[in-house]
Amino acid sequence: MDKKEVYRVMDEAADVIWGLSDAIWEVPETAFRETKSAALQCEALKKLGFEVTENLAGIPTAFSGRWGSGKPVIGILGEFDALAGLSQKACSAVKEPLIAGGNGHGCGHNLLGAGSMAAAYGIKQYLESTGKEGTVIYFGCPGEEGGSGKAFMARDGVFAELDFALTWHPMDYTCAWYESSLANYQVNYKFKGISSHAAAAPHLGRSALDAVELMNIGVQFLREHVIPEVRMHYAITNTGGFSPNVVQSEAEVLYLIRAPKTPIVQETYERVNDIARGAALMTGTQVEISFIKACSNFVVNDTLTDWVQANMEETSLPQLTGDELKFAAAIQDSLEKKSDPLAPMLRLMTNEEAKKVREKVTGPVLNFVIPRIHANSVLPGSTDVGDVSWVCPTAQMTAAAWAAGTPAHSWQAVSQGKGSIAHKELLYAGKVLAGTAIDMIEHPEQIAKAKEELAERLDHKPFVSPIPKEVKPKAIGM
């Protein structure tokens, strides 16, 4: 069985894979609450012949599906969590929530998980038909949105046996991922004060809300004294009540601190902690600092990603119909703010390279493969795939499942997540990942090369998780 035959078998299973994606779209669940979505994936894995193990790293919605034996041990990473407040009718170019304030798959993780499972199935079929040695493991990774499920799994050794890992993400362009990402820490600061009547006895009170506000002001001044790439976001999650004539005895603020490298996040975190303690001292309150989660920066592996790029270029791109392009154009018309999805990548290219890419844009869907990006750069966002990339060589890609310009975490992304373009792109991504894994099986020297590259990038130091051992995964918010 060669790669083309593998892709044919994957095409035969397309309805099953698309049905899984749609079923998960219909039950959108947020971080670490994905019980129905996890069950759907586990059931699908069993039907496809995988041995399922649940409750990985003590997380009820983390699981794996394994097939085969021996090396190489190939990890395929899948996700399935949704976002709060993004409920939306499918395949509509008009904002129409299905449930007011409900959840929705605004980052396309229903597609991500299904496409990755398709890849794992393709690899299984290849190993089974050829009799070659090798193990493929599909990982159901919960809580990517605000929970860093993979980071907890990496901390607890779930990925330790892997020779390499592959994954993808729905986006509005098709590209191999040659860029790093921002590491981050998420931390909760809970201030406790003394309640009193704000008019009759304000001198007896100690305001926790004052402490939160002073902490936030202190962090604003800190922004001038960190490197420009550092980001410090916050949300006041508890203001202490709704009565202005009461001195608030409790208040909380949740921080997300990002930087290009984990040690820089750690340094910034310690400085933010000092500001929090200073705010408590100024207001006569106490502060409780709770580490929620972290994720490491993504370590690019050129060796492995070059094979992904090659497979993207040799695998047939989806053929889109006139109706599909018409719907994509309607989605573009619905966007309040137009953005250029190619701009961040074109800035990393020469003028001639950028011109050639621009010439490929012929419609509302960027249905072409962006050439390899040679410049080292850091994406402005974060991903818990980063922690996996410290453990083993890891590569990822994106596929144009959305109309060009569609922002992630939007109702437009939710709407397109059950459409035929998304279906075609998830299967394309699955084929690329399966093809890459097959190439690695056929060329074991490339796995060794990828491992050596990772060791050199990490200065031959072992992975140390930024998440303290005592910290457990925690669902935040709704």
Keywords summarizing the entry:
about 475 residues, alpha/beta, Aminopeptidase, Alpha-Beta Plaits, seven-stranded mixed beta sheet, four-stranded antiparallel beta sheet, 16 helices, 11 strands, about 40% helix, globular
CATH topology of the largest domain: Aminopeptidase
Characterize the largest beta sheet: strand count, sense, and whether it forms a barrel. Answer: 7 strands, mixed
CATH class of the largest domain: Alpha Beta
What would you give as the CATH superfamily of the largest domain?
Zn peptidases
Structural class: alpha/beta
Label the overall shape: globular
Low-confidence stretches: none
The share of residues in helices is: 40-55%
Number of domains: 2
Explain what you see.
With 478 residues, the chain is of the alpha/beta class. It has two domains: 3-181 and 297-457, Aminopeptidase (3-Layer(aba) Sandwich), CATH 3.40.630.10; 183-295, Alpha-Beta Plaits (2-Layer Sandwich). The chain is 41% helix and 17% strand. The protein has 16 helices and eleven strands. The strands form two sheets. It has a seven-stranded mixed β-sheet with strand order 1-2-4-3-5-11-6, sandwiched between helices. Helix 2 (14-25) runs antiparallel to helix 4, helix 4 (109-130) runs parallel beside helix 15 (420-442) and helix 6 packs parallel to helix 13. It is globular and about 80 Å long. It starts with a helix and ends in a 21-residue tail after the last helix.
